[in-house]
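Quarterly update from the structural biology core.
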Amino acid sequence: MSERDPATPRTRTTARVRELRFDAGSLALDLVATVGRRPSTPVERLGDADRLRAWCRGVGVTLRDGEDPTALLAALRGLRTAAHDVATAAIDGRAPRPDSVDLLNDLARVDPPAPRLLVDAQGRPAAGTAPLSAAQLLSSAARDLIALVTEPRLRERLRTCDAEVCGMVYLDPGHGRPRKWCSMERCGNNAKAARHRRRASAPAP
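Predicted structure, tokenized:
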């Protein structure tokens, strides 16, 4: 058996790899990030009703009572596939699949939740929303993705993580130098460690 190249990223599926991500920069991209390590070794992060509830908490959404988690999971996964196709098409400068476009447009037809003004005990205003139906959640994510790819200033900030074992799509903050990785703490440090291993393993001149 050949020895592993020290510069090759490790691909073990650890608990950290399975963690939900909430740092992609938008609701739709946080949904896309519920699959890790695209496209090499996909890792499902939205596997059951408990993970669905954790994801909703992470993106600041409260679902109405009585929503069927199994049906919503299936619908979110379908939207996730379409959103990934449309987002990466925008990044790569290609046309997305027609079925992806049709699904986004179909889901976006539902009226989004109306904003609510909340006031705390000290009289400070804050924004809030009522609990969402499954259709409203899907519509919110679809509309968010449509806004990202149709607004030129947002579209040009869409990125795919440079790490080969990541592939996460994220929205670059748009200030300073463009980010190469979804997270410096995660993929950035891994890339630095890989470069260090590559230099250390190189034969001496």
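DSSP finds eight helices and six strands in the chain.
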